[in-house]
Amino acid sequence: NIVKKVKNGRYDFRPPGWKRVSRPAKKFVEQLLQYKPANRPSAAKAAKNPWLKDQQKKRRAKTISQTVVSMNAVQASIENYSNYNTLKKLALMMIAHKSTSDEIGFLRRMAKLYTINQGG
């Protein structure tokens, strides 16, 4: 039982669960699982761990790049919309005002599937 092993300070990082975990990450976990509470880092000190800080930076960078991709998609949609004729714009506005968010999401997914199945 893993809880018993941790309580006794006798645990290991055997695969498969730990196979892809980096050495710095394992070291961080080891610090948090110290048998004697006095040997464990405080929450403030743990939050300053270099491995944890690096992971936070990576997550922020990923979020920023996802935001850029999303904004590019929004810009493309606006440009595409600007090329529609007046009747099509009016029809889209009617659908948007009369439909629920779920219905709009469904229509969006169906249009995407239709576009993919039509080769573009």
Would you give an account of this structure?
Helices cover 70% and strands 0% of the residues. It is elongated, with a radius of gyration of 26 Å. The chain starts with a helix and ends with a helix. The protein has helices at residues 2-7, 23-32, 43-47, 50-82, 86-98, 101-117. With 120 residues, it is mainly alpha-helical.
Amino-to-carboxy terminus distance: 54 Å
Report strand %: under 5%
Shape: elongated
Main sheet, how many strands, which sense, barrel?
A: none
Helix amount, in percent?
Answer: over 70%
As a whole number of angstroms, the C-alpha radius of gyration is: 26 Å
Number of helices: 6
On the 0-100 scale, what is the average pLDDT?
85
Write down how many β-strands occur, each being a DSSP E stretch of 2 or more residues. 0
List unreliable stretches of 5+ residues: none
Order of helices and strands: HHHHHH
The chain-level structural class is mainly alpha
List its traits.
single chain, 120 residues, mainly alpha, 0% strand
Brief digest:
This protein has six helices and no strands. The chain is mainly alpha-helical and 120 residues long.
Topology:
Elements: H1 2-7, H2 23-32, H3 43-47, H4 50-82, H5 86-98, H6 101-117
